[in-house]
TrEMBL record:
<keyword id="KW-0479">Metal-binding</keyword>
<dbReference type="InterPro" id="IPR013130">
    <property type="entry name" value="Fe3_Rdtase_TM_dom"/>
</dbReference>
<feature type="transmembrane region" description="Helical">
    <location>
        <begin position="22"/>
        <end position="40"/>
    </location>
</feature>
<feature type="transmembrane region" description="Helical">
    <location>
        <begin position="165"/>
        <end position="186"/>
    </location>
</feature>
<feature type="transmembrane region" description="Helical">
    <location>
        <begin position="93"/>
        <end position="114"/>
    </location>
</feature>
<keyword id="KW-0001">2Fe-2S</keyword>
<feature type="transmembrane region" description="Helical">
    <location>
        <begin position="52"/>
        <end position="72"/>
    </location>
</feature>
<feature type="transmembrane region" description="Helical">
    <location>
        <begin position="134"/>
        <end position="153"/>
    </location>
</feature>
<keyword id="KW-0472">Membrane</keyword>
<keyword id="KW-1133">Transmembrane helix</keyword>
<dbReference type="InterPro" id="IPR039261">
    <property type="entry name" value="FNR_nucleotide-bd"/>
</dbReference>
<feature type="domain" description="FAD-binding FR-type">
    <location>
        <begin position="223"/>
        <end position="323"/>
    </location>
</feature>
<dbReference type="InterPro" id="IPR050415">
    <property type="entry name" value="MRET"/>
</dbReference>
<dbReference type="InterPro" id="IPR017938">
    <property type="entry name" value="Riboflavin_synthase-like_b-brl"/>
</dbReference>
<keyword id="KW-0274">FAD</keyword>
<protein>
    <submittedName>
        <fullName>Ferredoxin reductase family protein</fullName>
    </submittedName>
</protein>
<dbReference type="InterPro" id="IPR001433">
    <property type="entry name" value="OxRdtase_FAD/NAD-bd"/>
</dbReference>
Length: 446
């Protein structure tokens, strides 16, 4: 397969992920400072310290909600540099930050007013909801956020289907709208000055605009432009299939080897399902290819797709690309069907590469013939490692034997989570620097 590639950029000491992460932290810190300034500029105007703390907590909660929207917007610039899995992790912890700041806001405000009025906290809350505009909406927003937080816990998340969890999460957008209208109605800081009002309107407009652009406008525009369709379905083994997809102007689709899309195949029984599958070949400007193992109803159904089926794809997503290289030479470690982005990366990467492919038995080595041909054409070393899980065939001593200079190379890793955890431990024991280790997990937020 011939790939369309620009000349390779030399590895650089300037890490895109560090730049993007520092930029996000700087944006959050600058806005936290702005929120604090506008709060102080408006004057405390409260009869006790509980009300002051409650109002400040509410403002920080609103800021975190806006930041949360930016994290889930799937903006290409951020996603290519940080990766959806890491953005999703930040999204999760930011969500818990929102939960606790808004709970603190509610508790401090209710107890603060109760201290002044002499009412008990429950009756004080009822009184505020009945007499103050926007408070009832704030209570509804907080209830939604508590429910979303409860189903986001690890134990609850494991018990829910992704579609159910995602549907519940969509109510977070309703909570954002309710919280914003509450802030407009009763937020003294919001209306304290024209500058404060302009700041908050701008903040929410940018956050909501990012979501609208990244989650709706950009996917719709790309799919209207490229008009993707299935061109061929090729079984690779009894439980693995490759799907070839064509469309218009694919040379203008900014996809790179190692990235993935959320694929929707527009048939009667599949149009509502979005499944993340990596590209298993470097984009060549004419065809996209995904290769998947039957691990559930979504992936198993790929075998029955027919050529001509329309496709709606969101992406490309992921930071598992050559953009993050720091060394001229590399090691590519794949486990099972995790070979798909590794095979695509091998096609794109320049410089000497060593490929280590771990499977239980040789018959499980999907795309092995292609890997062997690519390795031969590019002068890469290819090691097929087979056998049971124990003993660990990718323990530190084994990796050092296969790749003696592994600490001097970039390492790209993709495979089942237990294997990835074991290999990451081996790499740490071999003193491979963290910036040289590249991996990504499929993780969908919001």
């Amino acid at each position: 397969m011939t790939t369309v590639q620009s000349p390779p950029a030399p590895p650089t000491a300037i890490r895109p992920r560090v730049v993007a992460r520092a930029g996000l932290y700087a944006v959050l810190a600058a806005n936290a400072a702005a929120v604090t300034y506008f709060f102080a500029d408006a004057g405390f105007g409260a009869s006790n310290a509980l009300l002051v703390l409650g109002r400040l907590a509410g403002l920080y909660g609103a800021l975190l909600m806006a930041f949360q929207l930016l994290l889930v917007a799937r903006l290409p610039w951020l996603d290519r540099r940080i990766g959806m899995d890491r953005l999703t992790s930040w999204h999760r912890w930011t969500g818990f930050g929102i939960l606790w700041t808004l709970l603190a806001h509610a508790v401090f405000i209710v107890f603060g007013y109760a201290d002044s009025s002499g009412l008990d906290p429950v009756n004080q809350l009822v009184d505020l909801a009945e007499t103050v505009e926007g408070v009832l909406r704030a209570v509804a927003a907080l209830v939604i956020i508590i429910v979303v937080g409860a189903v986001s816990g690890r134990s609850a998340r494991r018990r829910l289907a992704y579609e159910t969890w995602h549907f519940i999460h969509l109510y977070t957008y309703l909570a954002v709208v309710l919280a914003f209208t509450h802030q407009v109605a009763v937020g003294t800081t919001f209306t304290a000055s024209s500058a404060a009002t302009a700041y908050w309107y701008t903040l929410w407009a940018v956050a909501l605009g990012a979501v609208f652009t990244g989650r709706l406008v950009l996917p719709l525009w790309r799919n209207l432009r490229h008009r993707l369709v299935v061109s061929a379905v090729v079984p690779e083994s009894d439980d693995v299939v490759s799907v070839y997809i064509t469309g218009r102007d694919l040379d203008r689709l900014p996809a790179r080897a190692g990235q993935f899309f959320l694929w929707r195949f527009l048939t009667k029984d599949r149009w509502w399902q979005a499944n993340p599958f990596s590209l298993s070949a470097a984009p060549d400007g004419r065809t996209l290819r995904l290769t998947a193992k039957a691990a559930g109803a979504g992936s198993a159904g790929l075998r029955h797709l027919r050529p001509g089926t329309r496709v709606f794809a969101e992406g490309p997503y992921g930071a598992f690309t050559a953009l993050h290289r720091t060394r001229a030479e590399s090691v590519l470690i794949a486990g099972g069907v995790g070979v798909t982005p590794i095979r695509a990366l091998l096609e794109e990467l320049h410089g000497h590469a060593v490929v280590v492919y771990r499977v239980a038995a040789e018959r499980d080595a999907v795309l092995y013939d292609e890997l062997r041909e690519l390795a031969l054409a590019k002068g890469a070393e290819l090691h097929l490692v087979t056998g049971p899980v124990h003993p660990d065939k990718l323990a530190p001593a084994e990796l050092a034997r296969l790749v003696p200079d592994i600490a001097e190379r970039d390492v790209f890793l993709c495979g089942p989570p237990p294997m990835m955890r074991a290999v990451l431990g081996s790499l740490r024991e071999l003193n491979v620097p963290g910036p040289q280790i590249h991996f990504e997990r499929f993780a969908l937020a919001g």
